[in-house]
Amino acid sequence: MLRTGTYTRRGFGAILAAGLLASGLAGCGNSDTGGSGGEAGSDKIVLGFSQVGAESGWRTANTTSVKEAATEAGIELKFDDAQQKQENQIKAIRNFIQQKVDVIAFSPVVESGWDTVLKEAKDADIPVILTDRAVDSADKTLYKTFIGSDFVKEGRLSGEWLVEEKKAATGPVNIVELQGTTGSAPANDRKKGFAEAIATNPNLKVVASQSGDFTRAGGKQVMEQFLKANPKIDVLFAHNDDMGLGALEAITAAGKVPGKDITIITIDAVKDGMQALADGKFNFIAECSPLLGPQLMDLVKKVHAGESVPERVETEETTFTPEQAKAALPTRKY
Ligand code: GYE
Hints:
Keywords: Signal. By secondary structure, this protein is α/β, with parallel strands linked by helices. It is built from eleven helices and twelve strands.
C-alpha cells in the first residue's frame, strides 16, 4: 500500500518511518488536549476528516488510503463527505469542534473562505492539518501543516512535454483545456504551470478553457461544447484523468480518434487513466498520488503529541508515456 518513493525530499522519510513503526507515541492520550470525542475510557486519538467528495477515481483512492491508514495507526476516524460543497465542509468542521475531536484534517474544496472556521478551531485548541489541497489564508498559524502535491509542477511538466512533442509544428497548435473545480488549488495551479510552460512556443495556444468540475460527466459535456465551437482542436489538456475519460466519449462520438487526431494530456495516473494511456487514447499523464493516508496519520500523531512538523510536506511524483504506463499497470495499486 505504501510507496516509499512518494515521500518528500525534505527528510520526511525518516519521520514517516518512525511514525509508521511506532504503535503509539508518548503523549498520545487525550488528556493533553483537554478531552476527546472518542469512547469513554479510550485513549485513541480521534481525527475528524472532511473529504471533498467522491468526484473522481483519485478521490476514491484517497478516501480508501485515509481510512485504511487510520485503522492501521489505531486512530479513531470521524469521516465526512462534503459532496464538493464548501458549506458542507464548514459544517463538518464545526461539528468536529463541537465533538471536541483531537485533530481535524480536511481537503479544502476551494482555496478561499476558510479563515473564520479555522479561527474557531484554533480558539478551541484543536490542531488542523490540510491534506491534498491548499488554502489561501494569509495567517499560516491557522493550520499546522499542509501535505500534498505540487500542482503547479504537474501543470508545468504537462506543458513541457507538449512543447517537446510539438516542437516541429510550423503553424498554430490549438489547445482546449478542461479545468478542475473552479477556485480549487489544483485547478488554479495546474492551469498556471501549464500556461507558463507553453508560453515558450507562440504556436501553442489555448483556444478554449472551461471547468468540467473534475468529473467524467463534466469532461464529456464540456468537450462536446468545445468540439462544436472549435473546428480545429489539436490538443486536449485535462486537469484530471476522469475529465479526460469523459472527453474520450465526446471525441469518439464526433468521429475523431483520441490520441491521434487529438493529443490528450491528463493528470493523476489512476488505473483507468493509465489504461487509456497504455491503449494509446491518452498520450501523456503527469502523476498525482492519492496515497496520502500513512503520511497524514503520522502527522496527526505528531501534532497531537505537540511535536513540531514541517510547514509543507510535498509528495514526490513522476510522469508517464504510453510505454511507461504499460510497464507500470500490472503493479498499479489505484
Ligand atoms: O487531481 C482530481 C480530484 O485535489 C489532487 O482532485 C486532487 C484532485 C485530483 O478530483 O482527480
